[in-house]
Write a structure and sequence with these properties.
There is one protein chain. The chain is an alpha/beta fold and 217 residues long. It has one domain: CoaB-like (Rossmann fold, 3-Layer(aba) Sandwich). Helix content is 26%, strand content 26%. Strand 12 and strand 13 form a beta hairpin. It is globular. The chain binds ligand PMT. The site of ligand PMT has 27 residues, from helix 1, helix 3 and strand 9. In the C-terminal section; belongs to the PPC synthetase family. This is Coenzyme A biosynthesis bifunctional protein CoaBC.
Length: 217
């Protein structure tokens, strides 16, 4: 492995889940732990790069001096932080699991138990990756992730194009040891004209492979 230095480079990394509040005690969230994105942030930092890490609720401690952590809760908060930071970065890596929808109304008070069934109305969240992709400059790169459960390659390739990514990292919820929470993952790198499949490995190792791949783009 080449010890490619990232001194002088600034990376934006999104990681972790988002929490979409329903009322003061409840939220809609997902199973992301933040491990994958934090592993990437640590790898960039180890190679001398600076990282703006926009991190949803996660219990993992991040403490490399090259990493500035921007703690956020919701997709809208993550969107605001990421869109304001990307201009000063050469690379954006979108490893967060962002809620596509949020409750339309957030109750000021705890929602009381009453009827046998209640209906929640949801409204669409901004797509952070897509909006960064739309304003990406020719001197910037944008890397996405795709968490799929079916038609893996086809769906990932669609996202690569739609969100204007230079590379997308596909992982499947159906693969043993892959995806949310585990220390390991099984990924495929999909670029405009080449695809690389990897075996099960530690997220810290995947972070090295990914940074090497980005340097070679
Ligand atoms: O955190 P871990 O527990 O380690 O788990 C890692 C992971 C499974 C969360 C990670 O490897 C991963 O796959 N992250 C992306 C999950 C996802 O929500 O993918 P998606 O296919 O729904 O979204 C596609 C891309 O658009 C992603 O880069 C996502 O960050 C981005 N996106 C999606 C929706 C949205 N509103 N804004 C976004 O930026």
């Amino acid at each position: 492995r080449t010890a490619n230095s990232l001194v002088g480079q600034r990376y934006l990394v999104t990681a972790g889940p988002t929490y979409e509040s329903l009322d003061p005690v409840r939220f809609i969230g997902n199973h992301s732990s933040g491990k994958m994105g934090i592993a990437i942030a640590n790898e960039v930092a180890k190679r001398g790069g600076k990282v703006e890490l926009v991190l949803g609720p996660s219990s993992i401690e991040v403490k490399h001096p090259n990493i500035t952590v921007h703690h956020v809760n919701s997709a809208v908060d993550m969107y605001e932080a990421a869109t304001s930071l990307y201009d000063d970065c050469q690379v954006g890596i979108m490893a967060a699991a962002v809620s596509d929808y949020r409750p339309k109304d957030v109750s000021d008070q705890k929602i009381k138990k009453a009827d046998d069934s209640i209906t929640l109305e949801l409204t669409k969240n901004p797509d952070i990756a897509e909006s960064l992709g739309a304003k990406k400059r020719s001197d910037q790169k944008l890397i996405g992730f795709a968490m799929e459960t079916e038609n893996l390659l086809k769906n990932a390739k669609k996202k690569l194009t739609k969100k204007n990514f230079d590379l997308i990292v596909l992982n499947s919820l159906k693969t043993e040891g892959a995806g949310f929470k585990h220390d390991t993952n099984v990924v495929t790198f999909i670029g405009q004209n080449k695809t690389r499949e990897f075996e099960l490995k530690q997220k810290t190792e995947i972070a090295k492979d990914l940074v090497d791949e980005i340097i070679s783009l």
